[in-house]
Specification:
Helix content: 25-40%
Distance between the termini: 16 Å
Strand order of the largest sheet: 1-2-3-4-5-6-9
Strand content: 15-25%
Mean pLDDT: 95
Number of domains: 1
Number of strands: 10
Shape: globular
CATH class: Alpha Beta
CATH superfamily: Glycoside hydrolase/deacetylase
Radius of gyration: 17 Å
Largest sheet: 7 strands, parallel, barrel
Oligomer: single chain
CATH topology: TIM Barrel
Low-confidence stretches: none
Order of helices and strands: EHEHEHEHHEHEHEEEHE
Number of helices: 8
Structural class: alpha/beta
């Protein structure tokens, strides 16, 4: 049977500010990337989200980011590789410790926002993240963008790597994500999104924005649920996979 992991970024509320639809989305995913307090989340939110994941048998991952609460971790930062590695270790260690205190086990690490995008295009940054993960736990899976330097860095560090693809994002002919600033970067038609997901999972291919066929290994699919429209799309992807007898299962 074909299997695929569905992941989502959760635990991104902060204090009195609620972001996302964590409770509803937990029913439709197999892995959760939980914010570690740098771009979103706080100790109480982290603990609550870990508990939700354990209640729903959803695998838990750390979602480290740049220290940028105001910009939600989406603004590029210029940091040294030593600083980046320390940031990753600090956040992964915190979430790992909290998860274990609740009787769970950390499965993976997926960088967030600008950290993710910069590391995908910069081998030195990707290596710093991989080394940070490795120094906390060599068994953790590095989740990152398919066809990126993050895969290379994981191999160099001896970590397992999970190639992530995006259900509702367009790719260019090089297999890279089309910038959100470009027209057509985000796909809104549920039928088109589900068709693309099925092809990525079954054939390992996607049609680029230029119309070219691109090879794309898919271990895990990121689905967004931070607004009602995105959540509805997540449900449709989940149902489409089930209808096509594709097993939704965590990376572990």
């Amino acid at each position: 049977m074909i299997r695929i992991d569905l992941n989502s970024d959760l635990g991104e509320s902060f204090g009195n500010y609620k972001i996302g639809m964590d409770e509803q989305l937990m029913k439709y995913i197999s892995s959760a990337n939980i914010a570690c307090g740098f771009h979103a989340g706080d100790p109480m939110i982290m603990e609550k989200t870990i508990g939700l994941a354990l209640d729903h048998d959803v695998a838990i991952g750390a979602h480290p980011a740049y220290p940028d609460l105001v910009g939600f971790g989406r603004r590029n930062m210029k940091v040294s590789v030593e600083e980046l590695k320390a940031m990753v270790k600090y956040q992964v260690a915190a979430l790992k410790g909290m998860t274990e205190s609740l009787g769970g086990k950390l499965q993976h690490v997926k960088p967030h926002g600008a950290m993710y995008n910069q590391a995908a295009a910069d081998l030195n940054l990707a290596l710093a993240i991989a080394e940070g993960i490795k120094e906390i736990d060599t068994k953790l899976i590095f989740m990152g963008l398919a066809n990126s330097y993050m895969h290379t860095a994981a191999e160099h560090a001896g970590l397992l790597f999970a190639s992530e693809v995006f259900a509702d994002r367009a790719y260019n002919k090089l297999g890279k994500l089309v910038s959100r600033s470009e027209e057509g970067a985000v796909i809104h038609d549920p039928k088109v999104v589900c068709e693309r997901v099925l092809r990525m999972v079954k054939e390992g291919k996607v049609i680029s924005i230029e119309g070219a066929e691109v090879a794309l290994n898919a271990d895990t699919i990121c689905i967004h649920g931070d607004n009602p429209a995105a959540f509805d799309l997540a449900v449709k992807i989940y149902e489409s996979l089930h209808e096509n007898k594709i097993q939704i299962k965590a990376l572990r």
